[in-house]
Design goal:
3 domains; alpha/beta; six-stranded mixed sheet; 24 strands
């Protein structure tokens, strides 16, 4: 029998105008954590979709346990013992933990006592002690998922694939939304599961984390395998060079460009919960000056989304006031706020930033249709939109065969570069950026960080929300911590460490 539980040999996959994978090789040994690294558009996602049965290769072979196989669907991959935990969790908040695990897998162990015993046993495997009530130190299998934090939700996703029989688990950007303490806990869980014979494919852009958790690392670049290395034999900078051909970028920039001129003032902002629960935002005050980046740090789900969307005018029924450059915009709709000079990079580009089935040049129009050079006397200037899309593609290194390609055809990172480039067009006075480099490789990060620093130096005010604490600390002039819809503290980005900031975010006692 082969020592490799998974082998992909000579995998080639073509799409119109793009070769996503070009003879890629990947061999994963049983019981190891094997990291897969590469730029946005390098072909990582396509390769994993092929392994998980979501796509079929044009050529090449897939072997599991030494036996060549052909997956027609994810169900085939699951039957072969391969599971995938996606970056964006697929849990139903209104169902219990046990119901989420059972959903779609009722035939494996039924829905009664045997199923619950199996779930409880696997819960311990993934680091969840199955509690039974208020006095428990773990989670209750009958508790609603909506009450759980990000780290527990992720463990439930892992629990779901194990319940379906997976012994090889693909983790797609698993640390993207975790604070450092939660990352340590995840890594401890992964190591413990290794001891029980589980194998992991770990996809990440965070190279320090990759070197900390991986037994081996395979790098792919422009759809081809660059090589497989031992993390003990390469440094982070060397890995970055293998991926993108340049040194690892840093978001740090300590020179101050903050002025005394207020651009954004939010006073007494409150947002009721439509369901009648605790207020989503409670008495939030925010001030951002020209040339300043104000970073908002917090565990996801503590009001960051509501704060951003309320300032953008997307949430109704809010209390308090919003002033932009001294003008009261509290009552203005979202488009009017944009026309006053507010740029917006949303946390979910597919829902709020892009039309996936429309070409890139049409996506350049979004949010700018009423302003020159795109909008002229109520009409859209297509030629101007096309010209500026070409500029964004060049300046932000958007990897695309052309501007007539649909947005959905681009990798997630290239979609993000297009959005950031569009929102920095038109000389905004305020940029609200929610996770501007989420899912973006180290090379693209460098470009986005450089653009943000240049715009900040030119007087742009930036309200930054990010789950990447190095990014928050490196880019911000001021840091505020949000918890439970309230601003509960501040931190000095010149001195605070990611671990200290994570402690403030979680409310842990040091």
């Amino acid at each position: 029998m082969s020592e490799h539980v998974v082998e992909l040999r000579g995998i080639t996959k073509r799409f119109p105008g793009v070769v996503a994978n070009d003879g890629v090789d990947l061999a994963v040994r049983g019981g190891e954590v094997h990291a897969l690294c590469g730029e946005n558009g390098a072909g990582k996602s396509t390769l994993m979709k092929i392994l998980y049965g979501m796509q079929t290769p044009d050529s090449g072979t897939v072997a599991v346990g030494g036996t060549e196989t052909h997956f027609r669907s994810p169900a085939d991959a699951i039957a072969a013992g391969i599971g995938m935990v996606h970056q964006h969790f697929m849990l139903a908040d209104n169902l219990t933990v046990a119901e989420n695990v059972l959903l779609g897998a009722e035939k494996r162990h039924g829905i009664g006592k045997a199923a619950r015993e199996r779930i409880a046993g696997l819960a311990r495997t993934v680091g969840l002690s199955a509690g039974t009530g208020a006095g428990s130190t773990g989670i209750a299998l009958d508790g609603l998922v909506e009450h759980l934090g990000v780290a527990d939700r992720q463990r439930i996703e892992i629990l779901k694939v194990l319940y379906r029989g997976a012994r090889t688990v693909i983790l797609d950007e698993p640390t993207a939304v975790l604070v450092p303490q939660e990352v340590d806990e995840l890594f401890a869980t992964v190591r413990a599961m290794q001891g029980e014979g589980y194998t992991f494919l770990f996809i990440s852009h965070k190279l320090d984390e990759v070197r900390a958790i991986a037994d081996r690392i395979t790098v792919i670049r422009r759809g081809r395998t660059v090589g497989t290395v031992d993390p003990g034999e390469v440094g982070t900078a060397e890995l970055a060079e293998m991926m993108v051909g340049s040194e690892l970028p840093s978001p740090g920039s300590r020179e101050s460009t903050v002025t005394d001129r207020e651009v954004l003032r939010v006073s007494g902002l409150g947002l009721p919960d439509p369901a009648g629960g605790r207020d989503l935002l409670d008495d939030v005050d925010v001030v951002v000056h020209a040339g300043e980046v104000l970073g908002i740090a917090g565990v996801e789900g503590n009001g960051q989304t509501e704060l951003v969307e309320t300032i953008m005018g997307m949430r109704r029924g809010a209390r308090g006031t919003v002033h932009l450059g001294g003008t009261d915009i509290t009552a203005l709709p979202t488009m009017a706020r944009r026309e006053h000079g507010v740029g917006y990079v949303p946390e979910d580009r597919s829902r709020h930033a892009l039309l996936g089935e429309q070409p890139l040049w049409a996506n350049r129009v979004l949010g700018f249709q009423s302003r020159p050079p795109i909008g002229r006397r109520g009409l859209i200037d297509r030629a101007a939109a096309r010209r500026d899309t070409e500029r964004i593609v060049t300046d932000f290194d958007v990897r695309t065969p052309g501007i007539d390609v649909t947005a959905a055809a681009l990798s997630g990172g290239n979609q993000q570069k297009l959005v950031v480039g569009r929102e920095l067009s038109g000389d905004p006075v305020l940029l609200i950026a929610a996770h501007p480099t989420r899912g973006v490789d180290v090379g693209a990060q460098a470009g986005i960080w450089a653009e943000l620093r240049a715009a900040r130096a030119a007087g742009l005010a930036v309200l930054l929300v990010s789950a990447d604490l190095d990014e928050l600390i490196g880019l911000s002039d001021t840091l505020a911590v949000i918890s439970g819809g309230r601003l509960v503290g501040t931190a000095d980005p010149a001195t605070v460490t990611p671990e200290e900031l994570g402690t403030k975010m979680t409310g842990a006692v040091t």
